[in-house]
């Protein structure tokens, strides 16, 4: 069994591969795989011509982030001890991969670890997706050291440390392969968005820890699949967040969280309409409709315990919008 596979999921990402894959090839020591989600552009031809030494796994349709990784990684089962899942729009630095794997090997109760994630657009700022480690509040809203909602911090060394986190970013994280397969990977029904947090909740239910280390650094472009202002992204985030909570909380706890989130997001949805952003307002309500349409697919978390979260904010929505706390250090 080999130590690690670096696995990049691709769908019509020829431009991203051309821009970012060279840094992965140059700075990595482990096998590099691309799982292709039935791209219709020239991604396959580009890889076969320019990077013939990069391994390629071709899927017969676009299964999304969750399904694409699940089907591709199933082919590797038993071949690698660890996986590093890496977005196609990421520039890596020297030794980034070995650092992550060494960190997992040195900390036996760890299931997964993410690096410091900075922006590929402004390399002095943290990236939206994961930043300096991810946390959840009592309503399961995600926030990060270095990013709360859309407020991004400048990297001034304030998170040059290691710490335990509530979730690791889907932009880049290393995970024990046996545990990934034991949990049957990501939930295919999510398609895209929130699936890594759902996986992290299930990992923590088993008693394992998740971590962030600043000893490994990457630069993430972000928005390669869906722009952050996309109504579809907003809809999927709301739908999948509710599904994630439904799966991972006892029923009585879920409905109390649902009511609180519903009030806050109803206010936000109405606010979008008043701001002339009706497409975003509709996306909020479509997220709720989508959850109820697919709720029967999921097994409610009746027998699961509520996991204590590690971050400082119980209500990050209120801290940010009403108490005007814009930085992690202010929470």
Automatic annotation (TrEMBL):
It comes from the Bacteria. GO terms for molecular function: glycosyltransferase activity. PANTHER family: GALACTOFURANOSYLTRANSFERASE GLFT2, RHAMNOSYLTRANSFERASE WBBL. Belongs to the glycosyltransferase 2 family. InterPro entries: Glyco_trans_2-like, Nucleotide-diphossugar_trans. It holds the Pfam family Glycos_transf_2. The keyword Glycosyltransferase applies. It comes from Algoriphagus kandeliae. Residues 6-180 form the Glycosyltransferase 2-like domain. This is Glycosyltransferase family 2 protein. The lineage of its organism: Bacteria, Pseudomonadati, Bacteroidota, Cytophagia, Cytophagales. Keywords: Glycosyltransferase, Transferase. Coiled coil: none annotated.
């Amino acid at each position: 069994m080999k130590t690690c596979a670096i696995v990049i999921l691709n769908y019509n990402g020829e431009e991203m591969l051309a821009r970012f894959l060279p840094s992965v090839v140059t700075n990595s020591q482990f096998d590099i795989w691309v799982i292709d989600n039935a791209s219709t552009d020239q991604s396959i031809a580009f890889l076969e011509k320019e990077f013939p030494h990069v391994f390629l796994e071709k899927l017969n349709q676009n299964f999304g982030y969750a399904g694409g990784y699940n089907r591709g990684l199933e082919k590797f089962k038993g071949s690698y001890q660890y996986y590093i899942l890496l977005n196609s729009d990421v520039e890596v630095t020297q030794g980034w991969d070995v650092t992550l794997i060494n960190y997992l090997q040195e900390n036996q109760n760890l299931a997964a670890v993410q690096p410091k994630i900075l922006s590929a657009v402004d390399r002095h700022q943290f990236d939206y997706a994961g930043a300096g480690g991810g946390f959840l509040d009592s309503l399961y809203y995600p926030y990060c050291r270095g990013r709360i909602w859309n407020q991004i911090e400048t990297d001034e060394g304030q998170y040059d440390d290691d710490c335990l986190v509530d979730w690791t970013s889907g932009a880049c994280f290393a995970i024990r392969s046996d545990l990934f397969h034991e949990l049957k990977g990501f939930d295919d029904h999510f398609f895209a968005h929130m699936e890594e947090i759902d996986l992290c909740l299930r990992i923590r239910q088993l008693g394992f820890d998740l971590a962030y280390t600043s000893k490994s650094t990457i630069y993430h472009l972000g928005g390669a699949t869906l722009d952050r202002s996309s109504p579809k992204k907003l809809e999927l985030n709301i739908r999948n967040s509710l599904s994630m909570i439904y799966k991972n909380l006892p029923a009585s706890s879920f409905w109390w969280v649902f009511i609180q989130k519903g009030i806050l997001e109803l206010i936000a949805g109405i606010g979008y309409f008043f701001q002339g952003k009706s497409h975003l307002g509709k996306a909020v309500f479509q997220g709720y409709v989508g959850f109820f349409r697919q709720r029967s697919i999921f097994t409610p978390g009746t027998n699961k315990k509520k996991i204590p979260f590690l971050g400082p904010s119980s209500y990050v929505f209120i801290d940010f919008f009403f108490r005007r706390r814009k930085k992690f250090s202010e929470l």
